Structures are given as C-alpha cells and as structure tokens.
Amino acid sequence: MTIERIHLHSFRNYEEAVFCPSDAVNLIYGNNGSGKTNILEAIHYCALGRSHRTGYDREVIRKNERVGVCSLSVRSNHGMNQIKITLTPFGIKKKNVEINGKCISRMSDLMGKLRCVMFSPEDILIIKEGPSLRRRYLDMFISQINTAYFIELQKYNRLINQRNALLKQIRKNEKEQTILLEIMEEQIVQSQAVLIPIRMRYIEKIRENVRFLYQKISQKSNEILDIQYCGPLIQYERISDDLRKKYESSREHDIINGVTSVGIHRDDIEINLNNHLIRTYGSQGQIRTAALCMKMSQISIMESEVGEKPVLLLDDVLSELDYLRRKFLLESISGVQTFITCTDLEDYDKKVAFHPVLVKNQDGIAEIENSIELDNKTVEDPLFL
Ligand SMILES: Nc1ncnc2c1ncn2[C@@H]1O[C@H](COP(=O)(O)OP(=O)(O)OP(=O)(O)O)[C@@H](O)[C@H]1O
Ligand SMILES: [Mg+2]
Q1: Which residues surround ligand 2, an ion (CB under 5 A)?
Q2: What pTM was computed for the model?
C-alpha cells in the first residue's frame, strides 16, 4: 500500500498542511515538539479511525478549533481510495468517516482500506504492562486484515457491557431478569466461538514469525522467543459447551461483583524467552527486541494474508536501537512504504536511500518542508548520503 497524499486541517499543531510522501522511506525529522508524531497519528487515524496515543478525539483537534480533519489518498491492489476523517467532538455526530466522498456508517467499512503497522518506544509496554495492551495489539492487528473479526469483536464488547449492566440490575434484586441473562450468555458464547479460533490462528502465525525474527536480530540461535495464547481455560474442541458451563458456574459470583469474569476480554498472551516470562526475567534490550519482533511479524503476516504490504510507521525508534537491530530493521523495510521520525538525520543508516521531510514548528504552527511537488508528483531523487 502506498499513501500518495496527506492533508491535515486543524489537526494537533497543524493549521493546514499537505504532504506528498515518497513510496519508499520518508524520514520525518525536526526538533522535539515540532509535530512529527502528529503526522503518524493522522495516518493511524485514517487506517483505524482512532489515535494510537489517545482515546479522546478532542485532544487531536487544534486548540481553540472545533473541527479537525485528516485525510489521505492511498493506492492499494484494489485501486485508489480517499479516506477523510472529520472530528467534531462538540457536534452531534462526533466522528465522520468518508471513503471516496461517501460517509460510512460503520467503522468496519474503513478496516483494510489502509493497513499500517506502527512501532514506537512505548511498544515495550506491550511486553511489560498488563494484558489489556497485549489484547489491543492483537485486536488492532487482526481487525485490519479480518473485518469479520472486527465486527464480531464490537458485538462481543457490546454484549459484555450489556451483561455487566444486567448483573448490576439483578444485584438490586430484579431476579426476573435471570432469563434475559441466560439468553445474553448464549449470545456471548456464540460470539466467542467465532473469535477464539481467529485469535488462536493469528497468535500461532505471530509465534512462528517472532521465533525466527528474534533469532535473526539477536543472532543467537539459543535464544527462543515464544508466545502462547492464554484464554478462558477451556478445551478448544468444545468451546461453546465449556464456555456455557463456565458462565453458569460463575453467574452467582459475577452478580455479586457486577462484572463478567469469564471471556476473551480477559485474554492474555504469554511471552517467554527460553521458557521464562520475558517481562519478569528479560533484560531491557531483550524486551525491546521482543517488542520489535512482535510488530515486525505483522508486516509479513499481513502480506501473506492479503497480498500486499502495509505502511510502516516508526516513531522515534532508531535512536533506541543498537547498530545490529537498526540494520535489521532497515533491511526488512525494503518494498514497504515507511515513515520514520527522528530528531537528527545522523540517526539514520547512511546506506539506505530515504526521502527527507523537515517539520518545523513556527510559533505553535507546524509546517512541512517536503521536496515532492504537489502538482507534479514525480519524486525527486532520494537522497543518498
Ligand atoms: N490539540 C493540539 N493543538 C495544538 N497543538 C498541539 C495539540 N496537541 C499537541 N500539540 C502540539 O504538538 C506538538 C507535539 O507534536 P508531536 O508529538 O508530533 O512532536 P514531535 O515532533 O513528535 O516531538 P518529539 O520529537 O519530542 O517526539 C507540541 O508542540 C504540542 O504543543
Ligand atoms: Mg514524537
């Protein structure tokens, strides 16, 4: 996939900016706080309809403005698509997504129009923090290649919220609702019978990839990175039956607590290095490498599943990596349209061709200095330093 044009309007510290990236490596450089990550955030919005760093749309709208827009044109195997996200958190409809000028009513229609893999220093939290970040990592990845999964996951989350609300009502002695609870549980079970096998399938694919990638990066054949699915304790040959029993046996306990204790909203991925939990026993460098492998594995899986490479967004990662890891990363991005942010061009491997894009912050307004002309879209010779 190739993004050909990006347009920002009242988005973060951009008033109005248009930028035509190169189809290879775009090196977005500028001082701290100039607006580099904001460009990656806009791309992420157009891919997944949301920011990678905040759940609040109003934060990304330029201060003192009421409407923020990010839009882009992306070329894929299926042709060109124009994606436009208009954020109006103070209006009635808070987020409007248009594809080729037509408003879409379901976010699932956006999935897959632009696929991206974002890697930033915070990704080590996927390894180090609690399970919710690992679930998000998995869900955002699968949703981009499997729209049915995204739709089913939204349905599942809705059902869990409804069950939680109902549990609280029953707790207040509204016992006649128990039949409704059973009906709801059956829907939750059916939904998981769809979701669990998909999660397991993709975890297995990631597992195969990270094992190979980790050995390649670390150049140590005796270091084995392994990941395991930790879902509800059930036999996967009889998902529905086992889950039904679990809901029945946890019902009383759940009514007391007012929350659903069983289900894939509690899933985790266990990440081990040589059979030991990496977040407990791994060094900082091993954890960082594992996080890099988890993200890089998505590129080849996406390519093999949908037949084209995603766009790669690398936020501030070069300076964090040692020479070997940086070399590996830069070698593996050939043929992938990439956006790399850095503060200093010196961070960059001098052997790889890149297209430099300077971001300047002028009195709180970001400006992009880019050598690709808007009207004449021929890309200048990439810089060989
Ligand atoms: N809603 C907003 N309205 C206006 N400006 C904003 C808004 N949100 C963030 N900013 C500004 O955007 C800038 C930060 O942008 P960004 O995170 O892209 O910087 P960066 O170039 O990636 O910096 P670093 O190198 O430190 O990562 C800050 O100057 C901040 O004040
Ligand atoms: Mg940044």
Answers
A1: 37
A2: 0.90
